[in-house]
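Worked example 2:
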Amino acid sequence: MLKVASCDRQGAVYLDSDTAFRIVDRSHRDEVEAVLHSTADLIPDYIVETRIETNPVLVKKLSCNPGDLLLGHRRVEYISYPHEWCAEMLKDAALFHLDLSLALLKKGLYLKDAHPWNILFDGSNSVFIDFTSIVNEETLFNEEYLQANTQYHKADKDIRLVRTIKEIFERMFLPYFLVPLAGYFVYQPAMVKKRIEETTLNTTLDYFKWRELFFNLAISRHTLKNLPKILLLMIRMQHNAYSLIKHRDIAAYLNSMRTLVAEMIVARGASGYSGYYSQKGEDQSPEYSEGWNDKQKGVYEAISKEGIKSVLDAACNTGWYARMAAKCGKNVVAFDIDEASIEILYSKVKRTGENILPLVLNIMDPTTERLSIVDNNRVLIEAVDRLKADSVLALGIIHHLVLGVGASIDAVVDRLTVMSKKQLVVEFVSMEDEKIQAEPEFFHVYYQNPNVAQGYSLDALLRSLGRFYSKIECKPSHPDTRTLVICEK
């Protein structure tokens, strides 16, 4: 089992293939059991499915001490992180956090922290996974990291409580939710994602600050239009905090914060890639049709094979093939470097409920491991380990990576293969393809140095694939300048 980094003095977390186990120290057993009983009606709509484990084999395997409480949580199929989400996903996670806080408040319970790493996306649905972050008032008042518990320990209960909530939001919700969302609001997605990853909680003492948004602003019409809105956002945040202290109404504070987040427009909108499938006439229903072209039918036949339960759609664009896989009953992860395309897919998945996790990732520069500065255990798990699937689809991307980015065919195949458990479906696009000939701006490495094309051929791709796959089959794609290559391990 993999031990996950934790600063929680209530216990430790271990990941197994389908379960996350949490050992709760016996000194906290009663309070955690009481929270589990109180929140039963919030499972699974808000909180991941959680049960008390009594199997003696498990207790012994995890080296539980006498009297410890062992919890078993359903393991969400795919772990993802906030810097891998599109802006709308981070916004929805923030709204989810506030909604959960309001639901817990009615039960006299609180979240002792306020950051997005306690939330995972199960498809398009947010789910809270850090069960021991849900605490009663007494436990909240004993939380050592909160300075309010020292500064106001002699104050009456109501003052102490609102001061504690205010500190939690200023130290966590602000830098890990609001500031990144404000960055998306002023159209700085690349900087925001970089800073979210760099300031991952427990891996650094650094955090994302308001002033970074202003230092990185490029003067433009968009900036001048939205800068006053950012200043207003900061003022509203301070006003909400002032009202909390004055009126001591936590529910009103949470609702005000929810309104503030809900009004933020963070979606990126269209890009040069987000209309890809409609331009090619391939944006019809993902339900199987005899009218599909050779590429669509070939991919469908490949992923319909026995034993293919999960599919990873790499460089998925707006996710037509990911949705096809979901219609086939597969568990799907779909990612692309183009955030506008992922926004479109996320919107569709929210509307349809399809079993797809959409992420913003660069296939050649995915998330790497990050360790905790507290206990040196893993906080971020490498994407190539987290997102492995039975079948990996890489359609219409190899020519971009070789001719546009300058990667070698071997490097691309290596990256795809490490994420594939059983099958790889790739598409080779020949140099005669109209996209390569008509869109030089997408293939600038080749157009700057045509010699790059000398190592780019179907034969070179097949030789590279032959290093890993025992069965390789070429099939027609669409248009006829393209070839589907189905590989089996």
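The first helix runs from residue 29 to 38. The chain has a mean pLDDT of 92.
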